[in-house]
Specification:
α9 (203-217) packs across α10 (227-239), α10 (227-239) runs antiparallel to α12 and α13 (280-294) packs across α17 (343-356). The protein contains 18 helices and no strands. The chain has three domains: 1-32, no CATH class; 39-88 and 96-162 and 196-264, no CATH class; 271-379, Cyclin A, domain 1 (Orthogonal Bundle). By secondary structure, the chain is mainly α. The chain is globular, with a radius of gyration of 22 Å.
Length: 380
């Protein structure tokens, strides 16, 4: 309110204008929520990465590296041109679609298409209750839309792929219906995905590209359903940045922010690690052991009713609560989460706080949960 918020914005501006940003000070400020004005939030989310460098270097470096990724991963001139019949390159056996060699470019291309179909299905329905992701971005990717390049867009590739959707059900058991029942998918009539005219791209297409490149660069994990729910809020925050100079780079910045976050969160998505120290089972159990420590009475009540942590904490932890609240609340929780150096430990505290407050559901103000989590943290 009034003076308070103006003063807070000032505090952030001062902290961010330091030659060498004092992360401790900045994190303390971020913990209580970050103002959206002046692009402060987007900037703080970028800077709160563990190894923070000067913001400007970050920006331009990201952009170049990312363009390189686009050229290598998405723009495959040889294949795209041959597909579009634009140039009759000599198709050798090496580059023939029927080449049985598992390393052949075509083989990779078809494999990638399976991943792409799964991503496509998931990103098209990001936040169905908001029009944002269906709208065209002001900054479509020039590199890909440039008619000079004869490149094939991912959307075109999905349309051309004849692979049947059943090859796509290899997602993790348990994460299949990751969307919470509240997010009904039938909010729009069946023509909800009107294809935008050539030369423009919807925001969901940008998210699709980010996830596809991530999958190509991280073949060990590739794409797992639910990652779209983690990219969504990051991209939304960067793509609505009031500072247009930053907003223009939303795609590259989201990619690096997401990659950073996944470097700490990816173990939750790797099924073979489920039962290891770093896997999701261990984390789900730590929610209960912490609860036992903080609120024995509630812990016993849940035990007695045989309510297992995995019923709900799987989704809470893997998707960083992005499915439990409306987007503005998710973003507010992430302000605090990203500001904590040990963000995943804090996430466990937040889950505990949610359980402790569960009897006051529905919680209309996430602030209550965060305050409770902070209280649990201070008492440990």
């Amino acid at each position: 309110p009034g003076l308070g918020s103006g003063f807070r914005i000032q505090e952030f501006k001062v902290a961010l204008s330091e030659e060498n940003i004092n992360l401790k000070t900045l994190r303390e400020l971020c913990f209580n929520g970050i103002p959206f004005e002046g692009g402060i939030r987007a900037l703080c989310w970028k800077v709160s990465r563990p190894a923070s460098v000067s913001v400007t270097i970050c920006l331009y470096h990201n952009e170049d590296v990312y363009s390189q990724f686009l050229k290598e991963m998405i723009i495959q001139p040889g294949i795209a041109k041959a597909n579009l019949g634009l140039s009759r390159e000599d198709v050798t056996m090496e580059d023939h679609p029927l080449n049985p060699n598992p390393d052949s470019r075509w083989n990779t291309y078809f494999k990638d298409n399976e991943i792409l179909l799964q991503i496509d299905k998931d990103v098209r329905r990001l936040y169905p209750d908001m029009a944002f992701f269906q709208r065209p971005t002001e900054y479509p990717c020039q590199l890909i839309l440039d008619p000079q390049n004869d490149y094939e867009t991912l959307r075109r590739r999905v349309e051309q792929t004849t692979l049947k959707a059943q090859t796509v059900n290899r997602n993790r058991s348990g994460v299949t219906n990751v969307s919470s029942p509240g997010k009904a998918l039938n909010l729009y009539p069946s023509n909800e995905y009107e294809v935008l005219p050539n030369g423009s791209e919807a925001h969901w297409e940008v998210v699709e590209r980010i996830l596809f490149i991530y999958a190509k660069l991280n073949p060990g994990i590739a794409y797992v359903q639910g990652m779209n729910e983690i990219v969504g809020p990051i991209y939304y925050t960067f793509a609505t940045d009031p500072n247009s100079q930053w907003k223009e780079h939303a795609e590259a910045d989201t990619f690096f922010c997401f990659t950073n976050l996944m470097s700490e969160n990816r173990d939750n998505f790797i099924k073979s690690l489920d039962d290891s120290q770093c896997g999701i089972t261990y984390k789900m159990e730590s929610v209960y052991s912490m609860l036992k420590d903080k609120d024995m009475e509630l812990y016993l009540k849940l035990e007695e009713q045989n309510i297992k942590p995995q019923y709900f904490t799987f989704r809470w932890l893997t998707l960083l609560l992005s499915q439990e609240f409306l987007l503005p609340d998710v973003i507010r929780i992430w302000d605090t989460l990203f500001s904590d150096e040990d963000r995943f430990h804090f996430l466990i505290l937040v889950c505990c706080a949610m359980l402790v407050n569960i009897f006051d559901y529905p919680i209309s103000d996430v602030h209550t949960i965060l305050t409770k989590a902070k209280e649990l943290q201070d008492n440990s």
